[in-house]
Amino acid sequence: MTREEFKQLIKSGIVVLDGATGTNLQKAGMPVGVCPELWIMEHPDAILTLQRQFVAAGSQIVYAPTFTGNRIKLAEYGLADRLTEINTRLVQLAKEAAGDHAYVAGDMTMTGQQLYPMGDLTFEELVGVYKEQARVLWEAGVDVFVVETMMSLQETRAALLAIRETCDLPIMVTLTFEADGHTLYGTPPEVAVVVLQEMGADAIGMNCSTGPADMVEAVKAMYEYATVPIIAKPNAGLPEVENGQTVYRTTPEEFARDAELLIAAGARIVGGCCGTTVEHIRALSDTVRRLTPQPIGTTKKRVLTSEQKLVTIPLDGPFQVIGERINPTGKKALQAELRSGSLAMVRAFARQQEKDGAAVLDINMGTNGIDEKEMMIKAIYEVGSVSSLPLCIDSSYPEVIEAALRIYPGRALINSISLESSKVDRLLQAAKKYGAMFILLPLSDAGLPKSVEEKHAVLRQILAKAQAAGLTKEDILVDGLVGAVGALPTAGLDCLSTFHYCHDELGVATVCGLSNISFGLPERIYANMTFLAMAVSSGLTMAIANPGQDLLMNAAAAANLLMNRPGSDMQYIN
Ligand code: HCS
Fold first, then answer.
1. Among residues 53, 90, 162, 525, which is most buried (max CB within 10 A)?
2. Could you please report the per-residue DSSP string of 19-87?
3. Using CA atoms, how far apart are residues 225 and 189, in angstroms rounded to an integer?
4. How far apart (Å, rounded) are the C-alpha atoms in residues 326 and 347?
5. Which residue ranges form the domains of the chain, and what is each CATH number?
6. Is the pLDDT of residue 571 over 90?
């Protein structure tokens, strides 16, 4: 099935998935503790019967029983060298059961091994593990992929990248949320949906863990940000232990009734996870097929995320600050620290800027005598251990930006993309592939634009290229290119006209390096503060600045208040 065909399938109405594989096979005799994939190979009738019944009950997509068929899991049973044979055979069985009546999804999940920095497994090793399984599943002829029961957003990203780097089939992704509404690793549903849809997942949602009624809030949270269909595949209630056995008490009728709440909350693809039987799927299918789904979101929001936190950047404020301090340019002490291999100061800057009210942290590791790429990766991990703010990846080298985006477990901002011919296409592709936002710097090979008109023409050229690369206006913050008013008397006015142009005419958000305006002037803070207020009223969305400057942050709060920006009254009082 192509990605377009998958879209059409979803458009045709609510799509019903299958029910539980594991708990039903256990009922059919699969002992606990065996390798499920091997047991299924040796008892093919069990899966054939179950999946045929699911299809007869209304499942339009059945999951091939390849859930833990990755190298790391199979190795626990000494079966890693049979990976190709096992995954291929299990897909064949699912295809036989589905016949022409249902699609078959290649199913993948967590490996059970912790990723660096919590464990030893590197991100690239994990991508390799998933790629190996994805290739076999693809070659065996699955119609679609599903990555499910994911507790870690970073591992989900690895699986998604692995599949996308293997083939162009549609990819469904579901995570498992705990009772506190977060994954085990602390990711809330809205962060997961933003990160994964921007990286190209075709449908995103949740499975396992709870019954349908308890999933409603998470579906709602995803729906608010989703531009892809939402999946809900709940258990038949919370598992309970009775006489040493795990039981699931939600009846098929209750399951189907509660599933109506999931559809009302925005789910378009539903099925059952642990404890759900063929009867649950029949009741579900009979109920949901007659319901009208909520529309799939079409308005993309301007958002950045870390692994845990989402920051929205509305065009009309509130005005927010990107903390500029993690940058060795002009900071001798930080340069020396980085050369010595220490990131203590980087961690301290991150903590302090978060405390001072930054919304996003810029990270620049450009200094002589270090391997910038290696240091950038280290800094991302280190900052992630002390701050939950989203990051802005700042480098002159595309390879540094690509490497950083690849391992960054959220939705980052790229600083920056200009029209420089040696870099522009490569960086736009990286932004698309890794789902990042970017700062558009209106510079070309000719250098600084000589007039406001030329600046806006370059800006439009980059915007057009970005749109051709599949990015949208909501992925962009235009840098106003602030010059020094001491060198060019119209520097302030030129910038203000760019903010107006972007906000009023293009509907594109803006950013600037605020303090450039006062370069060479005495008492710079007054010029900076006043320029900030003028810029905000001209439509400026964010600035890269030092949030430790009280006067500046207070001017920002006052500007938000005077512009009647949402939440600005409390921000000003605080
Ligand atoms: N597809 C798997 C998920 C377990 S959480 C199963 O057994 O149904």
1. 90
2. --SHHHHHHTTPPTTS-HHHHHHH-HHHHHHHHHHHHHHT-SEEE-S-TT-SHHHHHTTT-GGGHHHHH
3. 10
4. 9
5. 3-288 (3.20.20.330), 303-573 (3.20.20.20)
6. no
Stretch 544-553: mean pLDDT? 93
pLDDT one-digit tens code per residue, 325-362: 999 999 999 999 999 999 999 999 999 999 999 999 99
pLDDT tens figures, 203-246: 999 999 899 999 999 999 999 999 999 999 999 999 899 988 88
Beta bridge partners of 278: none
For a ligand 1 pocket test, name from 51, 145, 207, 210 the mutation site with the most ligand atoms within 8 angstroms of its C-beta: 207
Tokens standing for 350?
A: 């991150």
Q: How far apart are CA 516 and CA 535, in angstroms?
A: 13
Residues 6+ apart with CB under 8 A from 256: 280, 283, 284, 286, 287, 288
Question: Which residues approach ligand 1 with their CB closer than 6 A?
Answer: 20-22, 63, 67, 107, 148-149, 208, 273-274
CB 540 within 8 A of CB 531: no
Please tell me the total number of residues recorded for the chain in this structure. Answer: 574
Exposure string of 117-132, with b = 16+ CB inside 10 Å and e = fewer, is: eeeebebebbbebbbb
Q: What pLDDT was estimated at residue 574?
A: 84
Q: What ligand 1 atom has the least distance to the C-alpha of 208? A: 5
Measure 110 CA to ligand 1 centroid, in angstroms.
Answer: 12
- ipTM for the assembly: 0.99
Rounded CA gap, 324 and 326, in Å? Answer: 6
* Secondary structure of residue 236 in the 3-state scheme: coil
Separation between Cα atoms, residue 408 and residue 411, nearest integer Å: 8
